[in-house]
Design a protein that fits this description.
Structural class: mainly alpha
Helix content: over 70%
Strand content: under 5%
Number of domains: 1
Order of helices and strands: HHHH
Number of strands: 0
Number of helices: 4
Shape: globular
Radius of gyration: 15 Å
Largest sheet: none
Distance between the termini: 24 Å
């Protein structure tokens, strides 16, 4: 339960910011720079919460991986929408690549930790 609350704090903060600045709770309809601000703050906030859990000695749970997957799927959907509308999606693509690299790093560290047990 503690991990869900810790991961939910940056997500709720991003959605509150989305509501305040863009007057919507649907990140898919938000255009260009506003979505990039939302998505970048969402990923940075989430990975800071993951890092804080790792710093305090907690293991990553399935909930953490589900949150990672949902955030990645949101970016992938927006990337596909941008490609289909023939919009520039280079920054979003680079954020998604960085997110994949970070996810692989966290997963490999988790596998090493489980193998030691």
């Amino acid at each position: 339960m503690k991990k869900i609350i810790i991961h939910s704090i940056p997500i709720m903060a991003c959605f509150i910011g989305l509501e305040i600045y863009c007057h919507t709770l649907n990140p898919i309809i938000v255009r260009g720079p506003e979505f990039l601000k939302f998505y970048f703050s969402l990923t940075i906030g989430f990975y800071l919460s993951v890092w804080s859990l790792k710093f305090f000695g907690e293991n990553l749970s399935k909930i953490s991986f589900y949150f990672m997957l949902i955030i990645f799927i949101l970016g992938a959907v927006k990337l596909l929408k941008g490609i289909s509308l023939d919009r520039p999606v280079g920054i979003l693509f680079s954020i998604l690549v960085a997110e994949v690299i970070v996810n692989i790093a966290f997963m490999s560290e988790e596998v090493k930790h489980k193998m030691k047990k």
